[in-house]
Design brief:
It is a single chain. 52% of the residues lie in helices and 0% in strands. It has 112 residues and is mainly α. The N and C termini lie far apart (50 Å).
Length: 112
């Protein structure tokens, strides 16, 4: 029997989706790691990471995408969007620097 080729450089959310799917079938973390190693190669994800994601999904997490820990949280609210819309419609011709002065909460630079 010929073994299928491995999938190189899978996206993180793809791996997490497979983990979630196999876990819903009742597979253990160890079995999930063994099965995925055959498809993604030996070093795709550690056994500990698989166990961690199994725990997260068991605790009720459904999102397979990154939580964005290093990204800033959104400051957009309905009120802020309405205020910016009013200013833009009133001026029509403006510079971004004018908006940054009027709405400093939007234009905060992160330190990275």
């Amino acid at each position: 029997m010929k073994m299928a080729a491995t999938i190189d450089a899978p996206a993180k959310f793809e791996l997490r989706s497979v983990i979630r799917f196999l876990q819903t079938e009742g597979r253990s973390a160890a079995e999930i790691h063994r099965r995925m190693s055959k498809v993604y190669g030996e070093n795709f994800m550690s056994d500990g990471s698989i166990r961690e994601w199994c725990r997260k999904f068991k605790e009720g997490r459904t999102d397979v995408h990154d939580e964005g820990g290093h990204w800033r949280k959104s400051v957009a609210t309905v009120g802020l969007v309405e205020r910016v819309d009013q200013v833009v419609r009133a001026k029509r011709m403006f510079k971004i620097s004018e908006l940054s002065e009027e709405f400093p909460e939007i234009f905060i630079c992160s330190e990275n």
